Amino acid sequence: MEEALGYAALRLRELSRKYSGREMAVFVSPRMTNEEIYLAQKFARVALKTHNVTSFSQLANPDTSAPT
Q1: At 61, phi and psi to the nearest 5?
Q2: CA 31 to chain centre
Q3: pLDDT tens, residue by residue, 6-65
Q4: 3-state secondary structure labels for all residues of the chain
Q5: Given its phi and psi angles, is residue 5 left (phi above 0), alpha (psi -120 to 50 degrees) or beta?
Q6: Which residues 6+ apart lie within 8 Å of 58 measured at CB?
């Protein structure tokens, strides 16, 4: 488990050096709890420096998203 977390952290550091926050996105599952979604968006904004956080439900059913 520790080895997997270390590898994931290494890859995320590499990706954040290679791509800017504008080029990354975090997708969350509609099955996640509000607490899990909050942590995912917090991770995206603080660690990855991106505000691109969305749910897979918007991809599957665009009618459920708010109009722009």
Answers
A1: -140, 85
A2: 15
A3: 999 899 889 889 999 899 999 999 889 999 999 999 999 999 999 999 887 766 666 665
A4: CHHHHHHHHHHHHHHHHHCCHHHCCEEECCCCCHHHHHHHHHHHHHCCCCCCEEEHHHHHCHHHCCCC
A5: alpha
A6: 64, 65
